[in-house]
Amino acid sequence: MQPIIRLSFACLIALNFAYSDTITSRPVGPGIMYHEVALLQGPWQIDILEIDLNDTMNTLETVKAMNNIAGYERTSSMASRSNTEGHRVVGAINGDFYSSGGVSIGVYVFKASLGNQELSGKCLLVK
Description:
By secondary structure, the chain is of the alpha+beta class. It has two helices and five strands. It has two domains: 1-58, no CATH class; 60-127, no CATH class. 19% of the residues lie in helices and 28% in strands. The strands form two sheets. It has a three-stranded antiparallel beta sheet with strand order 1-2-3, with helices on one face. Strands 4-5 form a two-stranded antiparallel ribbon. It is globular.
């Protein structure tokens, strides 16, 4: 993991731990830690997946609903569909903004292709 990203995650985790009611941490794979933080200020829960990208077994990938440009699908369904023998999915994040019909708003990357909808300035890129 790049030093700046690691520092950002460390600061985020430390800040959340300082203001949290309960903290649960457990490894979910080699170089991958899951942290669950319940905050005192309200009924909020923060899930953090800390990933060591220096481990060559760990990668970040993007998927689209049903592998189409437009559509809806739960992240749990996308993770299950992507989880195959030799390709274990340990986390899924809904990191897109979309309009009616499930069309992405802004710029997105899907299977190494850059897509663009000129509806907003929002951007999601995963290398």
